[in-house]
Amino acid sequence: MFRRRTTKSARLFARAQQILPGGVDSPVRAFKGVGGTPLFIKSARGSHITDVDGRTYIDYVMSWGPLIHGHAPRGLRRALASVAAAGTSFGAPTELELQLGELVRRLMPSVERVRFVNSGTEATMSAIRVARAATGRERIVKFQGCYHGHADSFLVQAGSGALTLGVPDSPGVAAAVAADTLMATFNDVESVDRLCHTNSGRIAAIIVEPVAGNIGVVPPAAGFLKGLRDIADREGIVLIFDEVISGFRVAPGGMQEISGLRADLTCLGKIIGGGLPVGAYGGRADLMALVAPAGPVYQAGTLSGNPLAMSAGIWSLHGLSGKLYRHLERLGARLAAGLADAARDAGVPLQVNVFGSILTPFFSSQPVHSYDSAILADTRAYARFFHAMLARGVYPPPSQFEAWFLSTAHRDEDVDATIKAARAAMKEAAGPVDGSDVKT
Ligand SMILES: *Cc1c(COP(=O)(O)O)cnc(C)c1O
C-alpha cells in the first residue's frame, strides 16, 4: 500500500523527540508496541478522532477510558465554559467538590469518605499509604500484570519463580521499596493465601483491578474477588479495589455493584474526571479519617478538587443511566462477536475478552485469564492488524495489551464499519504477504 513518506504527524513526531522523551508524555502513545509513527491529533467529536493530516478514524482509545460519553459532548463543553468564566482554580474549597463527592458516594456506597486528587497514580499511591498507616504493616500484595499507576511500589513484577519478594520493574525504583510489594497471580486466590501464610501479620493491603484492564481485558473468575474479601477479613488486611477503569464503566457502582462486594478503599480515575485530570480515593470512614487534616496521614494537592475537573466529573456521572449501560453492553457484545467471526473466517486464532463496554482481541489460541496467558498473544499479528485497521479508518489501541473502549457516542454504524474493516485487516494480520513486516 502506498504511504506518503512525510505526514504532518511524522514531522511533528520528529520535532517532539527533540523536546519530549521519546516524543510523548506517556509511553504507550509512542506506538512502540505496534511500530510506526503515532498520529498527532487535532480534534475529536463523538466516536471519531481527526489527526493533523486531516484523516478521521473511529476511535477505540477514547483517551484510555474516561470518555464514556464520547468526545467533546455539548453539555460538557457548556458546563466547562461556564465554570471557567468564574475562575479556573482557587486553592480553597468549592461546593463542586461536595457535589461530586456526594454523587460518588451515592453510586458507590462503600466510599463513605472521598479525597480528590489529580490522577489514578496519586489515588493508588495514597490509598496504600492509608492502608499502611491503618494496619502498622508495610507489605502489599498486587497481582502480576495489574497496573496501578507509576508510583514506586507498583512498578514491580515477579521475578522468575514468582511469588517471592518483588524486584523493581524500572530502574530508579529502590530495591527496598520493591521488596515490600508481593506478587500474586490474577484469578488465583491460592496464590494470595500462600503469600499471607509466608508473610503473616505483615501485609497491609491487597490491591486489585477487579476487572483487569492493563494486560488487555481479563474479567475476574467466579469467586476470585470474594476470595480476596474473605482473606482480607480473616487477616486484617485492607482490601483496595483499583476501579480507575471499572468505576462507572462496568456499572454505575463499578465492579463492587456487580460483585456485591465492598472494598475497604477504592481508587477512582478516568471517567470520574470526564476527560479532565481527576483521581480519587475513598472508602471506610474510619480509614479515611486517618487522612490529613482529619488525621496524621499526609496527602495534599495544589490543584486537587479543581473546579473545571470537578464539573466535568459531575456532568459525566449525572449522565449515567441503566439505559446507557444496556446500550454499551449490546455494542460491546456485537463488536466482540464481529471481531471473533472475522478472525475465524480468516483462519486467525483470536480470543476476544469482553466485559460490557471494554474488550480486547488477543491474537492467541489460548484463553486469557491471567498475565501468563495474556503474554502468549502474538504481538506481531496485533501490530499488523492495528496498521491494517488504521489504514481503513479505525483507531484501535496501539498495543495488544490494552482495552478497547466504547462510548455512548459509538453507533451501530461505527461497529459495523469496524467489523467490515476487521474482516480485511485479519487477512493482513495472518501474516506478511509482501515479505515486509512491522519493526517494533
Ligand atoms: C490508568 C490507570 C491508573 C493510573 O491512572 P493515571 O491517571 O494514568 O495516573 C491506575 N489504575 C488503573 C487500573 C488504571 O487503568
Describe what you observe in this structure:
The chain is α/β, with parallel strands linked by helices. The chain has two domains: 7-68 and 321-426, Aspartate Aminotransferase, domain 1 (Alpha-Beta Complex); 74-318, Aspartate Aminotransferase, domain 2 (3-Layer(aba) Sandwich), CATH 3.40.640.10. The protein is built from 14 helices and 16 strands. It has helices spanning 8-16, 74-85, 95-107, 120-135, 175-178, 189-198, 224-235, 254-259, 285-288, 307-318, 322-346, 371-374, 379-391, 412-429, and strands at 41-45, 48-51, 56-59, 113-117, 139-143, 156-157, 167-168, 181-184, 203-208, 238-242, 265-268, 279-283, 351-355, 358-362, 394-395, 404-405. It starts with 7 loop residues before the first helix and ends in an 11-residue tail after the last helix. Mean pLDDT is 94; it is low at 158-164. Bound molecules: pyridoxal-5'-phosphate. Pyridoxal-5'-phosphate (PLP) is lined by residues 119-121, 124, 147-149, 209, 213-214, 242, 244-245, 269, 279. The site of pyridoxal-5'-phosphate has 15 residues, from helix 4.
* Assembly context of the chains: single chain
Bound molecules: pyridoxal-5'-phosphate
**How many DSSP helices?**
14
Instruction: Name the CATH homologous superfamily of the largest domain.
Output: Type I PLP-dependent aspartate aminotransferase-like (Major domain)
N- to C-terminal separation? 19 Å
> pLDDT average, as an integer?
94
List keywords for this structure.
four-stranded mixed beta sheet, seven-stranded mixed beta sheet, Aspartate Aminotransferase, domain 1, 16 strands, alpha/beta, single chain, binds pyridoxal-5'-phosphate, Aspartate Aminotransferase, domain 2, 440 residues
